[in-house]
Amino acid sequence: MEKKLTYALFTGCTAKESTPEQLMSTYAVAEKLGIELVELSEATCCGASHLQDYDDFLSLVLNARNICYAESRGMTMVTICNTCQLNTAMTKHRLDNDPELKARVNEKLAEVGLEYKGTSEITHFLYAIIDDFGLETLKEKVVTPLSQFNIAPFYGCHNIRPSELQNETHGKAENPYNPNSLDDLIVTLGGVNVDYEEKNKCCGFHAELQAPKTAALLTGKALMGAMDANADWMVTPCPLCHLKLDTQYEHAGHAVGRDVKMPVLHMQQMVGLALGCTPAELGLKHHVSKVNFV
Amino acid sequence: MTTITTQTITFNVFRFNAETDYLPHYKTIEMEVTSEEVVLDILNRIKWDVDGSFSYRRSCRHGICGACAIKVNGKGVLACKERMNDLIELFGTELTLEPLSIKRAVKDMIIDKEDFWKKHEQVKPYLIDEIDEHPESENLVTPKEEAQLLEADYCIQCGLCHYSCPSLENNESYIGPAAFAAAYRFNADVRDKATLDRLDIVNAPDQGVWDCVKCFECQEVCPKEVNPIEKITKLHNQVFENGVAINNVATRHAVGFAHSIKKHGLLDEAELVRYSEGTVPMLMKHGKVGFKMFKVGKVVMPWNMPKSDKLDEVKALIKSSSTVKF
User: How far apart are CA A239 and CA A21, in angstroms?
Assistant: First the structure.
């Protein structure tokens, strides 16, 4: 009998707020695949790389605390946000490779009765599906192949760079210049993966407030690249990329001088569609750029 | 004994001469490539065997001068270090050779790096101190103090990170990762006395570290493991540690995370935007998008804001572990 896959789910903040459909679809897909997710209800925000700019040590302590709760459940932590994945994996890397830093962090954690040991692995739900569940097994579960769709994968920076860290986390890094996980997933689900230059580029999310012009240009170019490659819709494993591409099309369109609105699905929604989940289960009504093909 | 293998590769080579051409073009060249070759060998063979007018920069051939930096299929490489076998494994047998920046191309692979050097100069990349003209002893730096440089002085100024940076690509005022790494290198040097001057430069809106999009391309592309984004983060930290953070949207955005986590454990997204921008600018800049998000259920009302379990524990850790104030 196959061993049931069980993970400690680090939801991050966005799935609890501005992308509720991502959390809904994560649970819907997990149920279809028989994956058990135990939510880390004690977890805090990872700092999203901005708290790190303000107070690096504080961000380390808080991220280490999150990992402690996965360790206490004896589980691998699974994330559903590229930035949560990066910040958590980076914390683990730094603590596992710097005994002095680990001791300083543990001194603080001891004040609330916790200890970071480094026993839990950290992976993204995308890689849990691809590496742990397996694409071959997933293919057997497809009930509605996505064969009528040209789908543009948008990887998001923090799952593919820095590749050394990703390699350490997943055991085999994607090639950041030619990533393939989302492409493979699309093909497994029966869809047509479209290739375009911007698929491994930055969406601009992290500079949205501080550098809006740069951010809008990056978003616009990504949407434009997917449209020019004749994509029917885009798919991303990162809720931050999703937010940027789904909601900011107007500013982005002004920046690049074109109407660049198109549906942008979460990776889980795409998998869920192929597995036969209903639009309601996948939260497809929670999109600003309407998902008008279901 | 290692066996040398060969493969036929199709190269699409960028050709342009600013003195005679209005537009660039790509020349297709097929070549047998051996498993022992690096990209520089191919550039040499194109010039020596195919077209003597083909131009590129080369110098040390040992990965320490940075002259031969180009892009292959969009990936920034040092031509003298990058093995053809690795590129073929990465991209297959069709490879496009381009200069680091097409818009700065002068002739074929040669670009005008004036912008790079100006940005470099902008951050005062040298040691600044009052020097005794007749010192009686050496000015020693301990290994621990030297370790603070975090390999920032390994930079060979090849420009790979600079011309791969999407912030720079879209905002020419942005100083860029290479110059920031240089700024950090001297700020981290215990002998230097110009930290605050440099922080003024790297802290400025539009040009400074706050415009980094955090894509990690600079870390990925760097051939010398300088890790520029780590240095950018350190400069952010220095801005706060030295009390020179300007009270603006960028700094409040970073600080707002600490406020939210203290209050909810999780980030209050809407409140973060309000805290960063101010209420009126937020409504003016984001009101329309916010309303669209509200209509489809993407906005959580303050009274429904989710909280982490064991929030007292989070608050205690924030109180005990915070290292800076704003």
Answer: 10
